[in-house]
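REVIEWER CHECKLIST
Item 1: Sequence provided? yes
Item 2: Single chain? yes
Item 3: Sequence as submitted:
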Amino acid sequence: MAGSLVCVDANIRVDMWDDELLLVPTTLEALQTADIAKMSEDELLILTNTDSIGEGIKIVKQWPAKIKIITLAEKGAILLTEQSEFHIEGYNVPVVDMTGAGDAFIAALISKLMPLESWTDDQLIEAVQFSNACGALVVEKRGAMSALPDLSTVNRFMVGKSQNVDIE
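Item 4: Structure as written out by the authors:
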């Protein structure tokens, strides 16, 4: 759709593909045509055919997507903008069930970015911090949909919990 913002979450699930050989090239094509490309640490390594996050990031930086995000579970997320790289700390919480954490992260990110006409690095960092909090809250409970927090729950969770942001 012309003029639309495209956000793609790799969300690799090998068992969902009839032809596993199409998984990586099809996912890469989708991510490389996106404005925002999100993947987990494991997905980064698979999609870039590398053995380290650093090697994978070097490759992903060359993708045309304006924003790239690599989620790192409790270690937070790496945010790559057109000019900068940021490591945003995560939240260390007791993990009950990982189901839905990535979905909560991407939904939270989109909810923060949609109302804005353009994004500064500070707004993107704030959106990722909020998304990290949503993911953390989801893993503390069993189930995907039933664990999704509402806005007031996320805001209460984030109060008093500072997150460090490292600029690379």
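Item 5: Key structural point noted by reviewer: The longest strand covers residues 36-40.
Item 6: Recommendation: ____
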